[in-house]
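Troubleshooting: if your tokenizer reports a length mismatch, compare your output against this known-good record of 517 residues.
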Amino acid sequence: MKLNSKIWLLGAVALGLAACSDDEYTGEPQVIPQPSVLPADAVSGTDVYAAGSTLDINAERADIDKMLNLLNLTRVDQQPEGYALQVNMILAKTVADLANPKACLDTVLTVLPEQAGAVQSLGLSAKALNILFHKLYGVNDAPQSVVVRFDAYSVKEDQTSALLGTVGNGGAITFKPVQYAYTPESSYYVVNSDDSSVKYLMNHSDNSVWEDGKFTVVFKVPMGGFGWKIVPASMVSNPVSAQCFGPAPDAGDMSGALALGGDAGFIDVVQEAPYMVSVNMTNPNEDYTALQPEFTVQIAYSILYVLGNAQGGDGAPAVLTTKDYVTYGGFVAYSGWGCKMTSRPAWDGTEFANFTFEGPDAAGTYTGEVGKGSKDGNILGLPDGIYAWVYNITTGKVQATPIEYFELIGTATGGWEDDKVQKLAPATDAADCAVYTADIDFMATGEFKLRGVQPKVGNAWAYSLGGALDDLQWDGANSVFDGVIGVHKLSISFNASKDGWNSSDPDSMLHIVYDIE
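Known-good structure output:
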């Protein structure tokens, strides 16, 4: 395509295009006020990869820094004094996306040795193109259609610029990125390296492996330890060592890189205990030329705690319990000062924090994700109140739903019908009150549970505590009252007792209990 007209300024357009990319290859010239009309100019060129053709980046994997010619300019007229020609390549998934600055990428092309018949040749390295592809489509290495457009500018050293227009024909071409050494599967097992019949299927989300490459499983490690490998489901019945994964040579015992065909890892324990093994099978390297899977091994936490000023800063943490070592839940009184989830009732445990809640949704629920960032590294973003708090340790997702009231229900307190409940009242008027109490009429010996109710959720059983009276569990079994029938003062604090707070005993655990007088 040939451009032969006066150069005009489209400052707003140029600024919009600058927003097309957030990656390191962005080179959109900055627009600075200048005369509205520049001398006549002309630029024309031909795409090296015409619409419908294939750009095979994988063919250059052996020399990923090789420069690839993308555009041959066949005419470049004299630029205005002090100006030089610059050409940007715009990439998008569809033609419509080219008009959406948030849906496209752009990068400045590099001047290359002139090809035959060209007055100037322009291109990028295979590495840069590979990275741009994955910035557009994610980690997946499947070939995809990419719409390309080339925009020409006159640019001055002080970054004053004028958009000349489009060069070449552009259009959709097929990008074939560098292919990885292995194709990740949708299921993986942790397999005992000494006895392949001992295996554990790893949990995974409902997303594709390209969208979520994380797999997790919890199992009991026996005395004597456990040798392990990560085995694709396709060969779990007959593992082939070269196609299985073990810790890379420079990996630690508990975390590091996985290597295809690597030696077995080993979990060394002094007593039988549950451990969690987690892997990320689609972690890419910097230039997306290889996958670098990673693993972590950690003791599985039976309890997590919520510590910090959100609990009054007095060393009385909230307690989150679990039935599967993946989903943790409890009731948390939040006062807006920030807090952290920890693996111990002390500050020397593993921390899960650094995010700000967003929301609420129609049901009043706020959502957050561990590690997404907050201004001080704490958990922030909730109004004062008491919340049903649910944390998925494998995905890092947290949900906090405000509770309107608490109630007891069951045969011991009048029956399992919703109209037979007995409500508890907060001990103070504070929005973040963690203590609830009531004179409860225990009408019979038998079972009962505590429910936290948020009517907007539409399910009175969404949030409950049950189990032993001195060790209440999230969504636990029914509690049992076997005391004297009659009215008893019942209290429950969702902040655990301060006894044992900050203990140096690594096995120290705190619990949520009923106080029944």
